[in-house]
Design brief:
The complex is a heterodimer.
Chain A: E1 3-8, H1 14-26, E2 31-34, H2 43-53, E3 58-61, H3 71-84, E4 91-93, H4 98-103, H5 111-126, E5 131-134, E6 139-143, E7 155-159, H6 162-171, E8 174-177, H7 182-198, E9 207-216, H8 220-237, H9 240-245, H10 250-261, H11 265-270, H12 274-280, E10 282-284, H13 286-298, E11 303-310, H14 314-330
Chain B: H1 3-7, H2 15-28, H3 37-48, H4 55-68, H5 70-79, H6 83-89
Helix pairs in contact in B: 2-4, 2-5, 3-4, 4-5, 5-6
The chains are: A alpha/beta, B mainly alpha.
């Protein structure tokens, strides 16, 4: 049975996010993911509030990276959260966002190796081991917690490129695929399957999550209006080959990028076409969103994550999803 | 403002609509920094217990809504014909600057 996850960005204060998290938990969502960027509020403060105010939803950073925070500190944070909410914590770990890392002078060196090594250290230290590790990016010399960590914490790998997706299938308990369109998800799942095959696992052993930009409203125009700003940023950050795969004019994407750089929101957002919205978001009425989710499920998705913007009014959108979408997949 | 006294004037039949409007005002506000942390915690606690639609819950919501969005709160009070609530909020609304002719 498919699981539903929800993502929030702690640019919003914790009290808004936690209000929505409680609402989502009651509405049938099973996972809560909080993004981790230094320029927003701290992810673990929001997650601590989630641990206190929710009862059954699984939560974690979605996703953190090993460059900004050493994996032993990520492990410490997750192990501590796992004491507040035993068995409800999950780690989302990816390579991070190059632009953000560069803005603080951190180089994204050997992303595959860094993520792989960070996960290995994370798993060892959260299982109570004294970790002696000599990797290419990270090393530890007997690092050990002075407290006894609780249950094993599942690790989801945030992935977009083929090699990271393959590695996610190989080493992850789950994978957070940054894609919305069936074409992209199909390709991603193929890569994950290859990793799963290499590790002699089954695809069912890995929670394959589509991490989507999502917008729902009974009025499709309102759903689209909410999605457009997010789509503009995705288009601006997408490589040409991805745009071409969806038949999107690279020149138009470049124009949007330039307009965003110049803070000319009107020009940037008016440049977003219906093809772009379709390629980079799941957007529409509850019926059209349900159809798209069903399509993704057929491709091997086991968790559907609704991410920014969620809807023009987030509370109303969560109600719509809970009442008109989730029940169709729980029956 | 005596919030418990004000909430006591609201007929129970209007509680669901009032709760809905106040939550909407609070969650859609851009004036996040005006929310006192203890009040935010009270609201989350009441929401966790699913008791926002009680006297205690309404008191916290009304206080937060008045602090964050007095105009919207007044509009809600007017729409629901909550005369006493509207009377208390009105003085908090700064007068609109005169329109250029």
């Amino acid at each position: 049975m498919v699981k539903f996850g929800i993502e929030f960005v702690p640019r919003e204060p914790h009290w808004k996010i936690i209000y929505y998290a409680i609402q989502a938990e009651r509405g049938g969502f099973s996972n809560l993911w909080i993004t981790d960027h230094f320029n927003n509020r701290n992810v673990y403060v929001t997650l601590t509030a989630a641990a206190i105010y929710t009862n059954k939803i699984t939560f974690g950073p979605g996703v953190t990276n090993p460059y900004m925070v050493n994996p032993v500190f990520t492990a410490q944070a997750l192990a501590s959260l796992n004491e507040l909410a035993p068995g409800r914590v999950a780690l989302g770990m990816g390579a991070g966002d190059k632009t953000t890392l560069e803005s603080v002078g951190v180089a994204m060196q050997k992303p595959l190796t860094a993520v792989s090594e960070a996960i290995e250290i994370f798993r060892k230290i959260t299982s109570g081991e004294a970790v002696v590790y000599k990797g290419e990016v990270f090393s530890t010399a007997g690092a050990k917690f002075l407290f006894k960590p609780r249950s094993r914490i599942p690790v989801y790998v945030g992935a977009q490129g083929p090699k990271m997706l393959e590695m996610a299938g190989r080493i992850g308990d789950g994978v957070l695929i940054n894609a919305c369109h069936p074409k992209d998800v199909e390709y991603a799942v193929t890569c994950v399957k290859e990793g799963v095959r290499q590790a002699h696992k089954k695809l069912e052993d890995v929670d394959v999550a589509a991490y989507t930009s999502f917008s729902v409203h009974e009025d499709i125009k309102k759903a689209t209006k909410a999605a457009v700003p997010v789509v503009a940023f995705i288009v601006a950050g997408s490589p040409p080959q991805l745009l071409e795969r969806h038949g999107i004019d690279v020149k138009k994407a470049e124009e949007i990028k330039e307009a965003l750089k110049a803070n000319d929101w009107g020009k940037a957002f008016s440049g977003v076409t219906p093809e772009m919205v379709s390629a980079f978001s799941v957007c529409g009425t509850p019926d059209t969103c349900t159809e798209r989710i069903a399509e993704l499920l057929k491709l091997g998705i086991s968790q559907f994550v609704v991410g920014s913007p969620i809807g023009a009014n987030i509370r109303a959108a969560i109600t719509l999803i809970s009442e008109k979408i989730v029940p169709r997949f729980k029956a | 403002m005596d919030y418990p006294k004000l909430i006591a004037t609201v007929p129970a039949a209007k509680w669901p609509e009032l709760v809905d409007a106040l939550i909407d005002a609070i969650l859609t506000t851009k004036k996040d920094d005006k929310m006192p942390p203890n009040l935010a915690n009270t609201i989350l606690h009441e929401w966790q217990l699913d008791t926002l639609e009680t006297e205690e819950g309404l008191i916290a919501l009304l206080e937060a809504s008045v602090l964050l969005e007095p105009e919207k709160t007044l509009a809600t009070a007017d729409a629901l014909q909550l005369v006493e609530v509207a009377q208390e909020i009105k003085p908090l609304i700064p007068p609109k600057p005169p329109q250029p002719s």
